[in-house]
Amino acid sequence: MMRNMKKSGSIENQDVGATGGSGGIDNIPVQLLDALKDAGHVVVFTGAGVSAESGIPTFRDALTGLWSRFDAEALATPEAFLRDPELVWGWYEWRRMQVLRSLPNPAHIAIAELARQVPELTVVTQNVDDLHERAGSTAVMHLHGSLHSPRCFDCGRTHSLPPGPPNEPEGGRRLRPPLCAHCGGWVRPGIVWFGESLPEDVLAAAFAAARACDLLFAIGTSGLVQPAARIPFLAKQAGAKVVQVNPTATALDDDCTWSLRGAAGVLLPQVLKDLTQRK
Ligand SMILES: [Zn+2]
């Protein structure tokens, strides 16, 4: 889907640079803090950049070791799984191990804390890890599924994995997927693969939250992957303030109310601290 929203420069649009030094940041705009203080419903929309700050490789960066010979597209489709389930299951178990060995970073923790500072907060993520949950966020909407909720390829029933990280070799390995206890089909990762639709109920709930919120944070997301990329625009069209947090320029730059440049793990704790002081 192409983005066809009209670009409109807002007089409020401010690009706010984070300091590169080790000291605190003192340039969170006061208008942003006031908008956040007055917001009844805040949506936090996150992408790969937030997980990357916990050391989790992005989709394409995860193609190392055994998988360096493959394209992401060759591992992340239903056809690839049916062709070679051991290869695909092995890759996802190896990624799940990386996730479970990682910890939520200060951005995840600040988002969970912010939920206690505003009347209502909805977390919508494109990430397939559980770092928001482990930081304390609840009812997280996973638009692209989760590494932690596998299901049967044939009958769709959920499958429970043993607790704790799988013990996979550093370079990865082929691994036979478990079989469904109900029908004997292959268990597949609970991820939205290329060519598959996003879960309709989750997408609808995320769009509804974006339309209903007063302020939306778009954090660590390039704003390019559809249909998730519509979410900040839905919020903007409905009159919400949109705050971008990202170290680099993105497709959202011209459409957000404020753009905070820098690491989410630095900027979000600062927003939270300044908000607390301003209350
Ligand atoms: Zn089954």
Which features characterize this protein?
elongated, 2 domains, SIR2/SIRT2 'Small Domain', 32% helix, 10 helices, two-stranded antiparallel sheet, binds zinc ion, seven-stranded parallel sheet, Rossmann fold, alpha/beta, 279 residues, 9 strands
Walk me through this protein's architecture.
The chain has 10 helices and 9 strands. Residues 1-13 and 18-24 have low confidence and may be disordered. A 7-stranded parallel β-sheet has the order 1-9-8-7-2-3-4, sandwiched between helices. With 279 residues, it is an alpha/beta fold. Strand 7, helix 9 (230-237) and strand 8 form a beta-alpha-beta unit. It binds zinc ion (ZN). Zinc ion (ZN) binds next to loops.
Please work out how many helical segments DSSP would assign: 10
Q: What's the end-to-end separation, in Å?
A: 41 Å
CATH class categorisation of the largest domain: Alpha Beta
The radius of gyration is 20 Å
What is the assigned CATH homologous superfamily of the largest domain? TPP-binding domain
Oligomer: single chain
- Helix percent reads 25-40%
Brief synopsis:
The protein has 279 residues and is an alpha/beta fold. It has helices at residues 30-38, 48-52, 72-75, 78-83, 85-100, 106-114, 131-135, 200-212, 230-237, 264-278, and strands at residues 14-17, 41-46, 120-125, 141-142, 145-152, 187-191, 215-219, 241-246, 258-261.
